[in-house]
Amino acid sequence: MWRIFSGLVTLIISLLLVSFYVKFSDGQFARSITVDSNGGGEFASVQAAINSVADGNSDWILINIKAGIYREKVTLPKDKSYLVIRGERPESTIIEWNTDMEASLWTNSSNLAADVLSSATFTSSASDIVFQGITIKNTYEGQNGPKAAIALAVSGDRTSFYSCRFIGIQDTLCDNLGRHYFHDCYIEGSVDFIFGYARSTYENCNINTVPDKGLKAGWITANGRRSLDDASAYVFKSCKISGSFKTYLGRAWNKYSRVIFYRTDMSNCVVPQGWDHWATPDKGASTTFAEAECSGTGADVSQRVKWEKKLRPEELEEFISTNQFINYDGWLDKQPH
């Protein structure tokens, strides 16, 4: 009898070990956390789940967020890395807040960048992060013209986004610092709604323009590349631009601003000039604003600004090859998704 009992115990332990191995080897998760606003998980808020992760974490942890509207301002600090933040579906898993940057800060602040970032619904400062199936929204609507009201501010390196939505009006997505990959995402706004200093690829993303009070046209991008040695650039591959508001593809936040659109479908919401040099001292001459193999009525380049760049095939390849541009060390291949 003891031998039979001992054998059963050994078999059960073996099966449990196999199950454990398969779960964590295939999924690469050392821990799984469930967030449910209705009380069906370990935590009712996204912030509480993030807070439960140990500082200096080095193992992949999955944070599953159940469908619901999470009205909270979320901060992911830089010492909580290796997280997969996964919603059920972007249409039903929504994190939203309605903070804007106070008007007085535009002229009185000694740290304007930090004050602008403070408006974000979700601030992600850690490296090695994956977002999936989530909407992040800033619901603020300015009463007297546009104000900075960020949905997501991302400053960590090696961060990827799959099937996510970012919704706002001005400064929706602060693509601030680091290397980032956006795939099958939806981004909505009117003024500089993709801006910052990061080095990012946007692939198969939908970009939608919405009206802003007092403006005749908006700007999709405001890349802040500061020098010729700065690696910052925004690259859009096989994306779609549409919407109800006229828009420039981008304006130069700094003198060496760099944005490339490749094989992107552009509706007639894109203005014929395409680009705006903004306040650059050389009126856009040092920027790298380029388009290649784009389609749609908005892709007609016959009236584009004369300082738009024409990249040689080898120059273009350095940007449109994800492996060359942001994945040269293979970080994307190592992430669970």
UniProtKB/TrEMBL annotation:
An individual GO BP term: cell wall modification
Occurrences of domain Pectinesterase catalytic (ranges): 33-326
Catalysed transformations (reactions): [(1->4)-alpha-D-galacturonosyl methyl ester](n) + n H2O = [(1->4)-alpha-D-galacturonosyl](n) + n methanol + n H(+)
Pfam families the record matches: Pectinesterase
Coiled-coil ranges per UniProt: none
Active site per database record: 192
GO MF assignments: pectinesterase activity
E.C. number: 3.1.1.11
Keywords, alphabetical: Aspartyl esterase, Glycoprotein, Hydrolase, Signal
Keyword Cell cycle: no
InterPro entries: Pectin_lyas_fold, Pectin_lyase_fold/virulence, Pectinesterase_Asp_AS, Pectinesterase_cat
Signal peptide limits: 1-27
Pathway stated in the Swiss-Prot or TrEMBL entry: Glycan metabolism; pectin degradation; 2-dehydro-3-deoxy-D-gluconate from pectin: step 1/5
Highest taxon of the lineage: Eukaryota
Family designation: Belongs to the pectinesterase family.
Task of the protein: Acts in the modification of cell walls via demethylesterification of cell wall pectin.
Protein name: Pectinesterase
